[in-house]
Amino acid sequence: MSVFEAVPLDRLRERTSVKWRFFEPDVLPMWVAEMDVLPAEPITHAVHDAMLRGDTGYPHGTGYAEAFARFASDTWGAEVAVDRTALVSDVMMGAFELIRMLTPPGGSVIVTSPVYPPFHAYSRHAERSVVEAPLGDDLRLDLVAIEEACARVGGVADDGRARAVLLLCNPHNPTGTVHTRAELERLAAITAPYGVRVISDEVHAPLLFDAEFTPYWTVDPRGLSLTSASKAFNLAGLRTALVVGGDDTAADLAGIAEVVSHGPSHIASIAHVAAFDEGREWLADVLDGLRDNRALLARLLAEHAPTIRWRPGEATFLAWLDCRGTRVADPASAPDPGYIGLSTGPAKAFLERARVGLSAGEAFGTGGANHVRFNLGTRPDVIEEAVRRMGAVA
Ligand SMILES: Cc1ncc(COP(=O)(O)O)c(C=O)c1O
Q: Cis omega before residue 114 (within 30°)?
């Protein structure tokens, strides 16, 4: 039995986090990046034991970084220097703070749209301009567009900071694209002359199918990666994350303010350490279940919704569905990066007419119009019902 069949639908509906509570009960929630699984048992035990010991204080030491280092070495053959890491409360707050720290007010954040909507929103909240260098038609990085963006907004500010950073998503949410080592080396070479610093969000990296993952800190000595067990091990409610820097980032990491380093939860760190060290068999089962769900989605789309196109990515439980050829496509649909993004384009139609809750592609920026993001981390029967419903209106 797949890990995605362990929790019956009525028990999923009892969950109180956003996925199952945001919509009315007749809507199938296929949106936010939570998976409908039970946690790896070692995580449950580690948290339970910590509670029984009353170990509910502040985090201390480098245990999280050391556990991630073991995971990165065993999984990707990548070495982490523990003294070039810093704990932050979560991936996006880490990104937010790095943006604020590395660029001056009025600086820019280059994003490779269509990309995770908070990349736009958090950059704007940091009072930086969002500059898009959209993915190519092949859903891979467009290195020419990136170089043009660097030339336009890069350079060094009067206070010595970078005028721009590039916020990379590797693996890429929503497409599942895994950037190759060659692409990342080229990215490092392109950005360096313009003084553009790269912040790489690598939270989806443990969710890899048949691809090789290259952590950005291994190709760029000035690169800063962000990681966490939160996506792959389904621990979004247990908030902590890690910055991992390249060889030349010691000064950057030392500059992370106490207001940031104070954020991570100790209990969350205990959970994430158990995930990286003892959750690997569970992760392999999740990946097996996702492989099955991906095959199922391909089959169901062909059978029930042939106007929806999908090019499976190489990572993540997210499927980026191209609805441009469907009856619910909206010719006037325009990029509208909002936080949740449920109220435009095909996602709106699927919600209203099929009672399926999806993330609207329009929220992901340029390239997202008339696409929806579909979460495969759920029960196969839920996937089947969702696609049948979508097919009836697509
Ligand atoms: C690419 C990406 N980054 C960050 C996050 C959120 O991570 P956190 O909750 O640690 O900020 C998500 C969640 O879906 C994500 O997909």
A: yes
Q: Give the pLDDT confidence score for residue 339 in this predicted structure.
A: 47
> Going by C-beta distance under 8 Å and a sequence separation of 6 or more, which residues neighbour residue 87?
59, 64, 65, 240, 241, 242, 243, 261, 264, 269
Q: Quote the ligand 1 centre to 199 CA distance (angstroms).
A: 14
Q: What is the dihedral of CA 32, 37, 41, 43, to 10 degrees?
A: 0
Cβ(116) – ligand 1 distance below 6 Å? yes
With a 6 Å cutoff on the Cβ, whether 92 touches ligand 1 is yes
Alpha helices, DSSP H, located in 4-90: 9-12, 18-21, 41-53, 63-76
Nearest-atom index, ligand 1, CA of 94: 11
- Contact 169 CB / ligand 1 (< 6 Å): yes
Q: Is the CB of 199 under 6 A from ligand 1?
A: no
Q: Measured in angstroms, how far is the CA atom of residue 166 from the centroid of ligand 1?
A: 17
- Ligand 1 geometric centre to CA of 231 (Å): 7
Q: Which element (helix H / strand E) includes 110? A: strand 108-111
Tokens of 263: 């954020």
What is residue 124's predicted lDDT score, i.e. its pLDDT? 95
Can you give the pLDDT at residue 337? 55
Report residues of the chain scoring pLDDT below 50: 339
The answer to whether the CB of 201 is under 6 A from ligand 1 is: yes
pLDDT of residue 331: 85
Query: What H or E segment, with its residue span, contains residue 241?
Result: strand 241-245
* pTM (2 d.p.): 0.97
Give CA–CA dist 216/199, Å, rounded. Answer: 8
Q: pLDDT tens digit string along 253-265?
A: 999 988 888 899 9
Under a CB-based contact definition with an 8 Å cutoff, are residues 240 and 87 in contact?
yes
Quote the pLDDT of residue 343. Answer: 67
At residue 333, the pLDDT reads 80
Which ligand 1 atom minimizes the distance to the CA of 116?
1
